[in-house]
Amino acid sequence: MEKTIAGKTITVNEEGYLTNFSQWDQQVGEALAAEAGLALTPRHWEVIKYLQDEQKAQVALSIRRVGKSGVVDIKEFYALFPVAPLKTATKIAGIPKPASCI
Amino acid sequence: MKQLVILGAGTAGTMMANHLHHELKHPDWQITIVDEKEEHHYQPGYLFLPFDIYTPEDIVKRIDEFIPKDVKLMRTKINRIVPSENKVELAGGDVLNYDLLIVATGAKIAPEEVSGMDGEEWHKSVFDFYTFEGALALRNKLREWEGGKLVVHITEMPIKCPVAPLEFAFLADSFFKNKHMRDKVEITYVTPLSGAFTKPKATEALEHLLHEKHINIESDFAIESVDNEKKEIVDYGGRSIPFDILVTVPTNKGDELMERSGMGDDLNYVPTNKATLQSKEYENVFVLGDASNIPASKAGSVAHFEAEILTENILRYIKGEPLKEEFDGHANCFIETGGGKALLIDFNYTHEPVEGTFPFPGVGPLRLLKESRMNHMGKLAFRWIYWNVLLKGTHIPFVSATMSESGKHYETKETV
After folding, report:
1. Which residues in B170-183 are b (16+ Cβ under 10 Å) and which e?
2. Backbone torsion region of residue B312, taken as left when φ is above 0, otherwise alpha when ψ lies between -120 and 50, otherwise beta
């Protein structure tokens, strides 16, 4: 489905995840964060950048892997993106929801 | 004589020995299977042990009963695999050279991954039911328990048999009802997922059942520690859930052998091609069952379907033919729902479990994603099938290795 955010039209799936990363930019990220009630700090951006790089490298994302990345530990990851950090952070980053669960 | 070595004589390894000994015979081939254990456990039976539905005798047999005579069984610890030299170093210094290696070393629980989980209360008020010892300790506890807060918990995915903790919660509800003490027990199901299961349609059906049985659900819970003193589990977000009995599924990991051999990922699973079951790094190494990192359920039914396809691929590999990219992640699981009923789900990499009939389209007799007594009978019959048909590598009639879409009610042909 289509959605207008930060003055841009983006395509998202039924859970609100972008289906086309080329439609993502920093403003879209900020607007998606605002929808989740978050104001992004430089630390948030470091984590988002890391998640996008991992996604590009086709690495399967999981909380465990993020915790061992050296970029952020799990405690801080939760502090930055409360409740369900990986789901929230990937949505803001414009990448698919991780299928870390089978 | 060429050497085929199988590491692990559990469900997957035993099935491969039985499949391959018909195909690869003396004097051309010697098949060797290595496992340090003496006993073969019917792991799905661990679920029933705590509730006194099965006895230990139902679950345990000797490994050698299921290994064909012309396959050499070695009861030794494995020190490490040296895949670049096509050899396996055994404890005690012996070396096994191989032409072909099958890794079937499984997965096991690692409670030490969570702070405090294997602390003072381990097997006193904190239990697992993924080991024989854990399930037995829990049985003894439940026999005497007078009630309180029962918390059923999953640490992180992936785990063996992802439906088992739900089944545990359902069976606990039944168990306490039968003991006329359900009103004294509060059951809470705690999961790191956003809902009861990993696939949407099944989640809907299972959450409905949890609700019906008055089982609370706490989702998105990523455990940080078990507080042995306060008896509560705490998540990274600061949420805490108190328990009188915690039944947890700890982190599951592949065997440490993979770490020692430098062949595993961060959870000691071996990177494997999900369609051919060949190792991604070494072309004469194949991986099946829980030991691989493929995105299929870690379950005996998956290993069974894999074994049929892997047998063919090994024969193709030996002949120098291209491998069949056929494995589709097919899994087929009975889910005990208590009160003598069960659900059945049938799914693969791309198709989530839906309602329908199985194995005969439109006929059944088993019904998918619906509670029925027939499904429960199927689950109980499965123990016999496991010992007498499955391990021997015999094809189960009417159930194909790849999933069939007929008889299933998909809304669209879209993937999950």
Report:
1. bbbbbbbeeeeebe
2. alpha
Token pair 């951006």: residue: A45
Residue A102 appears among annotated catalytic residues = no
Per-residue pLDDT at B412 exceeds 70: no
Give me A71's structure tokens. Answer: 């970029």
Residue written as tokens 């026999």? B143
Contact present, B254 and B291 (Cβ < 8 Å): yes
Give the angle subtended at the CA of B376 by the CAs of B374 and B382, to the nearest 5°.
105
ipTM above 0.85, yes or no: no
CB-based contact B130:B36 (threshold 8 Å): no
State the pTM of this model. 0.91
Statement: residue A1 has pLDDT above 90: no
CA distance B325 to A16: 33
Q: A84 in contact with B at a CB cutoff of 8 Å?
A: yes
Within chain B, how many helices (H) and strands (E) appear? Answer: 8, 24
Tell me which chain A residues have a C-beta less than 8 angstroms from the C-beta of B237. 78, 82-83
